Amino acid sequence: MNPLIQINDLSAGYNKIPVIRHVNLKIFSNDFIGVIGPNGGGKTTLLKVISGLLQPLSGSIEFDDELSGKKSIGYLPQIKNIDKKFPITVFDVVRSGLMLNRGKENSANEKQKVTKILEESGIAGISKKAIGELSGGQMQRVFLCRALISNPKILLLDEPDTFVDNTFEGELYERLQSLNEKMAIILVSHDVSSISGHVKTIACMNGGLHYHPENQITQEQLDNYNCPIRLVTHAVRRKTTKNFGA
Ligand code: ADP
Fold it and tell me: Which residues line ligand 1 (CB under 6 A)?
């Protein structure tokens, strides 16, 4: 089986200064990789390179023919970076996920697709709301719809479990298990304990990338991978906020 994406000795960063260096990674169609690492370790930068938002400074990234352009990659960015003052409705945010298909679909088809995915995700009732009116959990649901609407072959998720209630978190991981039957998933999280039961393998990102071909990892292995994060138990996880449902 060929990888969907092959990253070779890749360095990438900003203003010509690399923040991730000499990264090697193969992504296969049934992968579910949890990317962990300290703040500033380059997790988001890696997702930006994979999604094509950022070009490598050196090295290469190869896409399999099966990935017919960027529309085969769905990306859920960190919602804390989204400008909530931007005057756009939920419907149009989700519709913008079809932008790369433009010209291939007529407007009626697009509207039908948006309505369908909003209904499937249980948020049809908020379709006319402006994004500034949404709770954190609702924002995550909306941007997940946007990432999924083009039926991607790879789904990139940047901390999808922040600002969400326990119910959404449970639903999210259940949905990801089922989506993983038809797409590869790369999930960035700062909380290794909460994702290790759901992902298949782990990539530790701290400037360089260390691939760990299992979903359980010990503190000693994290230290060996130069990945200075502490394993925490679920009992001391951050507070979640309740009642974020649509
Ligand atoms: P992580 O997702 O692991 O927290 P990031 O990929 O967001 O890490 O950031 C890695 C490094 O790149 C950090 O030092 C950050 O300050 C820097 N960085 C991120 N985005 C930009 C940008 N747009 N311009 C300049 N530096 C950036």
Answer: 14, 19, 37, 39-45
